[in-house]
Design goal:
- By secondary structure, the chain is an alpha+beta fold.
- About 60% of the residues lie in helices and about 15% in strands.
- Strands 5, 6, 7, 8, 9 and 10 form a six-stranded antiparallel β-sheet that branches.
- β11 and β12 form a beta hairpin.
- The protein is flat, with a radius of gyration of 28 Å.
């Protein structure tokens, strides 16, 4: 009953969303406020409807309804309740329902705001959100239905939504269980964070399309979506960080980022979203780059859908991807159609998107922000080409040729280095005009301090040129950013007569975006330390050890003590755990317990490393294999990852910076609008 009920509710939600599109378009073109209001209420109705369908699916998952194919595929009786709930987004069909649920929630939230000042945007925001929702609900209803049940037809078990002729319902005794890799706490949270980031970007895109359709080419749509863009960036960034931590803890290859196609699929909209956040500040401050901002938000939306396609189509092999599915061509069709329509709207409004001023200095802040954007786009091109190259090679040569991490690392390393340099220089430049002399006066002290630190590192830590360049750029960012905090607080202290810390806190509170950005710059410098450490200084070894034997690596001694294996019937898992003793320069540091967990329901292993973490490095030990019968010993893979924990420290500070920048201060409805004009109007600057 719950299966038919949940499916029926999804069909109703699909029809309601379809009605909201028709009513919004007809109401906008015929200036019918009542129809637009009807469309808005229909949009609001989709959220409770999809929530009811989602609740039905969760009920089936938690209560072991193995007559439902999706429940059978992603749960088992041995799984705890919280994992059965999170299995909602652990499979293809359920994740599409989750996507639809979030989108309906966000679209409903945005339609609840005050619209008196921006009423012409409302119908077109509804249209864009509802069309996207219709697409995802359509995939669920017609292709990836999580409520499909098993039926016994002529002795064969077949999945169908409704009972075929002469069929009886078939219920399995137990399910296959969730992939063990998805049972890690990081993976429980990682997909929802990515989905939140993906779905949040639909809102800025919807307002951008509404601005193009209505001809409101001022910066009003940017101010209305500023916080949406920041929160979308927060969720997407958090999702990427959690994905990296999950890979580090579970995948067992000693790293956090492997340039996997699906990792890159989530990284690409982050690149365009980051460029967009920088670029919109130029439009707000100087009235520049209106065309560019439209293109960036269109690219971000398109890459969100494209990334979802890569994850769900089965065209790329990845531990993150779902199995092969017929929905791939539909995704590509939707992405292509959205891109064509969006670019057509930009071309239509091209004359109305002219800049209000001109960029007069190549060293001004707006010019450096534009260069920053071009670097992000260059990284995007590298990533996009690396992802589609296997598809292109298979199309033209018949062989799928993949590119690995060396390609990405060689191509992007100079671009990331240039971005780090811009992080240090751009905060010191002025809007409108800057010169080499003014920038030099502002940063020479920081440059000297960074040079001194680099020389010290050369004599005490490393002589590798790449590492020294990286450390110089990192320390330059830190010194410049702290200098900006110091200068701002000292200036306020002199004017207001406050103590230093009061002046600093009030200064930051009154300039959240600016100082939140500075916190983000500091965090990215700390993350860069971790990336330099693991990419340049990582060492590894592997060996078969009998009990009592040792392996030496980077000053550490790893001594194999014992191995234990046991079954936990309640959890449906076999645990095989090794115990190793750790020494450094002859000093005993403690023991680590790398293990392999075998899950009976899914018949899959999960590797759990033994890990000793310090600010200096991680000692990361994997149990690769063992000989339980002949007692020949166990095989271990050992990594030493210098400085990697600065990556996680920087990630936490990164989240603090985004939250600080996005924290509400006042309603953007109260802000003045730059260059307000309607279709057909122009200014002298145009």
């Amino acid at each position: 009953m719950f299966a038919e009920f949940g499916y029926g509710i999804l069909v109703v939600a699909f029809l309601v969303a379809l009605y909201s599109v028709v009513a919004a378009i007809y109401g906008a073109t015929n200036k019918s406020a009542s129809l637009v209001e009807s469309a808005r209420r229909a949009m609001l109705l989709t959220f409770p409807l999809i929530s009811i369908a989602a609740a039905s699916l969760i009920y089936l998952l938690v209560n072991n309804h193995y007559e439902v194919a999706f429940v059978y595929e992603v749960t088992s009786r041995s799984m705890p309740t919280y994992l059965k709930v999170t299995a909602w987004w652990g499979g293809q069909a359920g994740s599409l329902v989750f996507w639809s649920f979030l989108l309906s929630a966000f679209a409903s939230a945005v339609t609840l705001r005050k619209w008196e000042r921006d009423i012409e945007f409302l119908p077109w925001v509804i249209v864009v959100c509802s069309v996207t929702l219709i697409f995802f609900l359509g995939l669920v209803i017609f292709y990836e239905n999580p409520f499909t049940r098993f039926w016994l037809v002529g002795g064969n078990v077949e999945p169908h939504m409704f009972a075929p002729l002469n069929a009886t319902l078939f219920t399995a005794q137990d399910g296959q269980g969730l992939n063990p890799l998805l049972r890690h706490p990081g993976m429980v949270i990682h997909p929802p964070m990515l989905y939140l980031g993906f779905v949040s970007y639909v809102i800025p895109y919807a307002f951008a399309m509404a601005a193009l359709i209505t001809g409101r080419t001022d910066d009003r749509w940017i101010r209305l979506t500023r916080r949406w863009s920041l929160w979308a960036w927060l969720f997407l960034s958090f999702g990427l960080v959690l994905g990296g931590r999950w890979a580090y803890d579970v995948l067992g290859w000693g790293g956090y980022w492997g340039w996997d196609p699906v990792e890159i699929a989530a990284f690409m909209p982050w690149l365009t979203g980051t460029a967009f956040l920088h670029s919109v500040m130029i439009q707000e401050k100087r009235g520049l780059l209106k065309h560019w901002n439209m293109i960036l938000v269109i690219l971000t939306y398109s890459l969100v859908i494209f990334g979802t396609f890569l994850t769900r189509s089965g065209v790329l092999s990845s531990v993150h991807a779902f199995a092969n599915s017929p929905i791939g061509p539909l995704f590509m069709g939707f992405v292509s159609l959205s891109l064509i329509v969006s670019i057509a709207l930009v071309i239509w409004r091209w004359p109305d998107l002219q800049s209000e001023t001109e960029m007069k200095s190549m060293l001004s802040r707006e010019a450096l922000f534009l260069l920053n954007n071009l670097l992000f786009m260059s990284i995007l091109v590298v990533c996009f080409w690396g992802v589609i190259f296997p598809l292109a090679s298979e199309l033209f040569t018949g062989q799928k040729i993949t590119v690995g991490p060396p390609f990405y690392e060689r191509a992007t390393a100079p671009l990331f280095s240039a971005l780090l340099f811009l992080m240090a220089v751009a905060p010191l430049s002025a809007w409108g005009h800057s010169t080499v002399q003014t920038l030099g006066r502002a940063m020479w002290k920081s440059a000297v301090a960074a040079s001194i630190v680099t020389v010290i590192l050369f004599f005490t830590y490393t002589s590798k040129i790449g590492a020294l360049i990286g450390f110089f750029l990192v320390t330059l960012i830190l010194f410049v950013t702290f200098q900006e905090f110091w200068r701002g607080a000292r200036a306020r202290q002199k004017v207001q007569g406050e103590n230093f810390f009061t002046a600093l806190s009030r200064l930051m509170g009154r300039n959240r975006r600016r100082y939140g950005g500075y916190i983000i710059h500091i965090s990215m410098a700390l993350m860069a330390i971790g990336i330099l450490g693991i990419e340049i200084f990582q060492t590894s070894t592997q060996g078969l050890l009998a009990q009592g034997e040792e392996l030496e690596i980077a000053g550490y001694t790893v001594k194999y003590r014992e191995l234990a294996s046991w079954d936990d019937a309640g959890k449906g898992v076999n645990f095989t755990r090794a115990t190793v003793d750790i020494y450094e320069n002859g000093i005993y540091l403690g023991e680590l317990n790398p293990r392999i967990d075998y899950y009976f329901d899914s018949q899959q292993n999960m590797t759990i490393p033994g890990n000793r973490s310090t600010f200096r490095d991680d000692l990361y030990i994997l149990l690769v294999d063992w000989q339980p019968v002949s007692n020949m010993g166990a095989t271990f893979k050992i990594y030493v990852n210098p400085l990697v924990n600065w990556l996680w420290i920087g990630s936490l500070l990164f989240l603090v910076g985004i939250i600080f920048a996005a924290w509400p201060d006042h309603d953007p409805a109260e802000e003045p609008v730059r260059n307000v004009r309607r279709v057909g109007q122009s200014s002298a600057a145009d």
